[in-house]
Backbone:
């Protein structure tokens, strides 16, 4: 009898050890909605339970008439990724982190992830760049041509000063400096406005198409100022994780009224780096040259050609 009892204990403990060696079981439900918060049926949902990114490790299915799809699978990473796609819509992505394991289950259990699919309406050709541009001089007004991604003479080959940038800087050393970037414009109706959207910190969440489809009619400010400092001058950050921008340039007025203008957007913040030579600024900008306020870009129609892949200008 004693031998049978010992054998039973060995089976129990070996089974318990096996359970603890297994990855946790996770369950999620993906809910897909449109811009009116209505369920989207027959959207393809892809749930990645593995950190290896292999298709064979994913669970793929279609949403039902309530716009939902659920899946249960062993989780080999602490974070799960889910995406939803459907013809005529921009893809959408969500993530979910699991930090609690109870017995063989990953919690939160059956977490509902809501993905919004925004329809493709009218994507058009635009000038799109995502690069760092070095300042050719300090304490001077510098014109920047968005269509040529270059400074106007005498510092470059641009022909139209869409943005007028000026950097005023006090520089002691790399740890102690104070710099101010001021942006102004060439025409009275030109300007820029901030659009709040947590794009940069939530790059792996939400619709691949961000920001409004159409630029607003008003709300543009004629001056934009960004200040960066460190050390004895106080600490001011060079980056805002929730700021994006919509701008208006090359505006033309008739009888005191706006006749036409070009509109564009900046995805993410304008990053201002004041050290290293004269410093520089980085921006991911879109300019629509057709004189409409459409901000929906067709990634296959970038009017800048032969750009390096490192610029990452495939987002609409």
Residues:
């Amino acid at each position: 009898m004693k031998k049978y009892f010992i054998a039973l204990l060995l089976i129990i403990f070996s089974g318990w050890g096996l359970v603890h060696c297994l990855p946790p079981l996770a369950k999620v439900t993906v809910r897909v909605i449109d811009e009116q918060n209505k369920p989207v049926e027959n959207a393809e949902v892809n749930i990645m339970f593995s950190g290896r990114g292999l298709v064979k490790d994913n669970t793929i299915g279609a949403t039902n008439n309530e716009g939902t799809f659920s899946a249960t699978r062993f989780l080999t990473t602490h974070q799960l990724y889910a995406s939803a796609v459907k013809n005529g819509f921009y893809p959408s992505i969500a993530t979910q982190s699991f930090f609690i394991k109870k017995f063989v289950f990953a919690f939160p259990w059956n977490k509902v992830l809501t993905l919004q699919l925004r329809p493709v309406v009218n994507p058009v050709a635009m000038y799109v760049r995502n690069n760092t541009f070095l300042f050719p001089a300090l304490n001077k007004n510098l014109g920047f041509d968005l269509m040529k991604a270059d400074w106007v003479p005498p510092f470059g080959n641009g022909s139209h000063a869409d943005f007028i940038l000026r950097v005023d800087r006090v520089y002691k050393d790399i740890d102690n400096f104070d710099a101010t970037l001021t942006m102004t414009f060439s025409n009275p109706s030109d300007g820029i406005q901030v659009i709040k959207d947590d794009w940069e910190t939530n790059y792996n969440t939400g619709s691949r198409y961000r920001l409004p489809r159409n630029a607003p009619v008003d709300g543009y400010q004629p001056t934009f100022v960004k200040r960066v400092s460190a050390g004895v001058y106080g600490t001011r950050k060079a980056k805002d994780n929730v700021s994006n921008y919509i701008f208006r340039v090359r505006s033309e007025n008739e009888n005191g009224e706006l006749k036409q203008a070009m509109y564009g957007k900046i995805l993410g913040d304008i990053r201002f780096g004041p050290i290293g030579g004269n410093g520089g600024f980085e921006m991911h900008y879109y300019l629509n040259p057709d004189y409409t306020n459409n901000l929906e870009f067709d990634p296959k129609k970038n009017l800048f050609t032969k750009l390096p892949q490192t610029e990452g200008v495939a987002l609409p």
In short: The CA atoms of residues 125 and 300 lie 8 Å apart.
